[in-house]
Write a structure and sequence with these properties.
The protein is built from 14 helices and six strands. With 402 residues, it is mainly alpha-helical. The strands form three sheets. Strands 1-4 form a two-stranded antiparallel ribbon. A two-stranded antiparallel ribbon has the order 2-3. The chain has a two-stranded antiparallel sheet with strand order 5-6. A hairpin with a 2-residue loop joins strand 2 and strand 3.
């Protein structure tokens, strides 16, 4: 909203300083700052309100050190994160941008699913929360919206430049055209590109949209559930998500600039630069939430926050056309997910074969395994953050690995 206000003031009255709102870097910085201030300043009031309403976490005794001390800690703190993302975007982003609108819808949609789950757990005293099938339906629903929008919307294009620039007087001119394309980024290949048309050539181009939408649904569901599983100890999900969000902000900025995308030889995506504002608000919300969620946590994000964070990360990666980098960038989420699947699968297999279930880890997800080894949770979180930073660096490095 402020963008349109200052754009009007700049054009009509030539107001000094109003033109600065034209710069994405300025608006992104302001969005990050405002997001951080919202979570920190309003956080205490929200926590006090949750305490008064007795919106406390129900803890199952898993035999983990310090676990039962967390009983009654306010949950549903994801409302802080959602507010700190949405308000700066409404103020600083271009609200007619398809990418920004898609991310805002995804934030509210996934946050709403998580809110219902937390509401049932806390107020209805049902430990199971929202039935799993309804969660899946909600995730598939947003996956359909995201997939169909990214595939069919007229503003979702990539820019193709002619390979041979033309000389016009003393200037070198490169002609281009904006085209609809199902191309995405894939690391370690020569051109770093994969066309969904080529995945199942026997289906033909007319069915590519179906393949793409199915991929989107799987990615959104997997990453949102991965973030949900990761949210098991103080600060782990918020800190990891902040690292991933910052990396996606860099990727969005590079792909949204003609000069940088040309230098790095990566696809240029028109209008993508506005997503940097959303990304910086996302990072600010995660960092601000850590003010209260770091050990010992004064508030938990609940499914309201974790499902939202994971789903938003998936949609961001899809919009930037870096979804095939998710296994690297979201390596922490992947490891946590795989540890649960391995544990459950191996337990069922050994119970059937030997009559007694056996375990690979002392406990799953993986962070609980280290807790069982009597490692302090603050140390576990710090080390997971370090691994997350390494994964982010590798992700950025793939831009030049061909």
């Amino acid at each position: 909203m402020l963008y349109y206000l200052f754009d009007y003031l700049d054009k009509q009255f030539d107001l000094a300083g109003a033109g600065v709102f034209q710069y994405i870097s300025f608006r992104a910085g302001m969005a990050a700052l405002l997001s951080l201030l919202i979570t920190i300043t309003l956080g205490k009031k929200i926590i006090d309100y949750l305490l008064r309403k007795q919106v406390g976490e129900t803890i199952r005794d898993l035999g983990l050190e310090g676990q039962m001390e967390k009983r009654g800690t306010p949950t549903m703190g994801g409302l802080m994160i959602i507010s700190a993302i949405m308000i700066p975007c409404l103020l600083f982003a271009k609200l007619d941008n398809v990418y920004v609108l898609l991310l805002m819808v995804s934030t509210l949609w996934l946050g709403g699913i998580g809110f219902l789950d937390d509401y049932i757990k806390v107020f209805k005293k049902n430990k199971e929360g929202l039935a799993g099938k309804f969660k899946i339906v909600g995730q598939v629903g947003i996956g359909l919206i995201v997939g169909l929008t990214l595939y069919f919307h007229q503003d979702v294009v990539i820019r193709e430049f002619d390979e041979t620039p033309q000389l016009n007087g003393n200037e070198i001119v490169r002609t281009y055209k904006d085209v609809k394309s199902s191309v995405t980024t894939i690391p370690f290949l020569k051109d770093n590109e994969l066309d969904y048309d080529n995945l199942f050539p026997f289906l033909g181009h007319d069915f590519t949209w179906l393949v793409y939408v199915l991929v989107v649904i799987v990615i959104v569901t997997a990453v949102s559930n991965g973030a949900n599983i990761t949210d098991g100890i103080d600060g782990l999900a918020a800190g990891t998500s902040g690292i991933i969000g910052l990396t996606l902000a860099i990727l969005a900025y590079l792909s949204g600039r003609v000069d940088f995308s040309s230098y790095l030889n990566i696809m240029y995506i028109p209008n993508l630069g506005e997503l940097v504002i959303f990304c910086t608000a996302f990072v600010g919300a995660c960092l601000g939430f850590l003010w209260y969620n770091s050990y010992p946590a004064r508030v938990f994000m609940g499914d309201t926050g974790s499902l939202c964070l994971g789903g938003v990360i998936a949609v961001l990666a899809l919009a930037i056309r870096k979804e095939l980098l998710i296994p690297i960038l979201c390596g922490i989420f992947l490891i946590e997910n795989v540890s649960v699947m391995l544990q459950v699968g191996y337990f069922k297999y050994t119970r059937k074969k030997y009559g007694e279930g056996r375990r690979i880890f002392r406990m799953a997800p993986l962070h609980h395994h280290y807790q069982k080894m009597e490692m302090h949770e603050a140390k576990i979180v710090t080390r997971f953050w370090i691994v997350g930073i390494l994964m982010a660096i590798i992700t950025l490095a793939t831009l030049k690995l061909r």
